[in-house]
Amino acid sequence: MFDAFDPIVLARIQFAFTVSFHFIFPAFSIGLASYLMVLEGLWLKTGRELYLDLFRYWVKIFAVAFAMGVVSGIVMSYQFGTNWSVFSDKTGPILGPLMAYEVLTAFFLEAGFLGVMLFGMKKVGKGLHFAATCMVAIGTFISAFWILSVNSWMQTPVGYALNAAGQFVPAAPWIDIVFNPSFPYRLVHTVIAAYLTTSLVVGAVGAWHLLKDRTDAHARKMFSMAMWMAAIVAPIQIFVGDLHGLNTLEHQPQKVMAMEGHFDSHPNGAPLILFGIPNSAEKRVDYAIEVPKASSLILKHDLNAPLAGLDTIPDRDEPPVGIVFWSFRIMVGLGMLMLALGLFSLFARARGKLYDWRWLHCAAIVMGPSGFVAVIAGWVTTEVGRQPFTVYNLLRTVDSASPLAAPAVGASLTAFVIVYFAVFGFGTWYILKLMQKGAQPHEPEMTDAAPIRTAGITPGPAQKGPEDDKVPDDDRNDDPELRR
């Protein structure tokens, strides 16, 4: 059934599908790990049990999200050897060590302290447990650091040379490769997006339970913390995004041309196209709604600054304008709504109505998943905007794929779709079920449900339950129900 399809297109769809599923979970776990660190730190500082309850509540959700992120990431990485073996061979001397650093630093750090954070609160001291929580939070950041360095080098490659086999090999100090031109901007922009995504989820959960009970202390604290985060971080993210856009204009101009929908050059100031339908065949944006010269003002800080268009780029080097144009607007539009929610919460807080205004709570619930949509839209903008290259302007996508037939790629894509929706769909449902319950006073710790014995083949001694103490030994031995 896949014989008529292009195997490269199928391989790209497969990678896009798996990486989109995967990135949802790290975008949540990066921010949630830091939130857990803050909650435990506040508990240790203030001694308030409310913070401990919230920590125990959210750590259960973190465990599920983290597990799904690890599993989906491992599956995704195999595609470098199956569908993209040529890319792996040519870029391996540079990207391979960076990926190895991620495993040796972040993954081992997270794996080493995760068990202590999840199950060790009653087994180690408070200080050591808090240190473990901090290590997990730091580990998630380090993981993002290396992965984004890899991706950024593909966007803005530096410090390389080509050997006789056509491979990219290091030709500069590793620090230049790691801190390539787009990496600092992409790192800050992505990590802030993760924090903002988490705050919106926490805010939505708090708002959901406030709608049911405005006096719920746990919901009030969750909602208040989340709205502070949204109000403070959303404008910072918009500022960082602007800096990232200016960096992209400098190093990847055709991506910005696609984002802006500029098919033609504008020597006397370019308009900002708010909405429209990109028509790549006719090289124009149909039904465009635009603000004259506003694009030049944003990108060059000058109303009359000239901006080049896609007419200066060979057709074979143009990215798919329609996808990039709309994904960018989805990301920016959601960012504006996040800013509006933060400002709305500040207004409600100033009026003393943060926990009373149902419209605010409903808005927070609606915006709960918006962070995930925004980060996926941002990655679509970044990755599709880099096309038709895997290594920008140096290695084309068509030259990066493995020599596989379309049915082979299509079969694995079908399997991924079925398995991912089944497994991760169930995991997501379970997370939503946990969120629906809400945090309770004296929230039970995860160890309360952990197995008593985890190693060895010899059963441990029978554990007495409360009911055993009520039955004399002689009666228990003679009772057929108890013997069964």
Quickly describe the structure:
It is built from 16 helices and 6 strands. With 484 residues, it is mostly helical.
Report the order of strands and helices: HHHHHEEHHHHEEHHHHEEHHH
Q: Characterize the quaternary organization of these chains.
A: single chain
Question: Rg to the nearest angstrom?
Answer: 26 Å
Low-confidence stretches: 449-484
Structural class: mainly alpha
Kindly report how far apart the N and C termini lie: 56 Å
Mean pLDDT score: 85
Describe what this molecule looks like in 3D.
- It contains 16 helices and six strands.
- It has two domains: 20-180 and 405-447, no CATH class; 231-403, no CATH class.
- Mean pLDDT is 85; it is low at 449-484.
- The protein is mainly α.
- The protein has helices at residues 7-46, 49-77, 79-82, 85-119, 126-155, 174-178, 183-212, 217-251, 253-260, 294-300, 321-350, 358-366, 370-386, 406-437, 473-478, 480-483, and strands at 160-162, 168-170, 272-279, 284-291, 389-391, 395-396.
- It is globular, with a radius of gyration of 26 Å.
- It is 66% helix and 6% strand.
- The strands form three sheets. A two-stranded antiparallel sheet has the order 1-2.
- It starts with 6 loop residues before the first helix and ends with a helix.
- Helix 1 (7-46) packs parallel to helix 14 (406-437) and helix 8 crosses helix 9 (253-260).
List its traits.
single chain, 484 residues, mainly alpha, two-stranded antiparallel ribbon, 16 helices, 6 strands, disordered C terminus, 2 domains, 6% strand, two-stranded antiparallel sheet, 66% helix
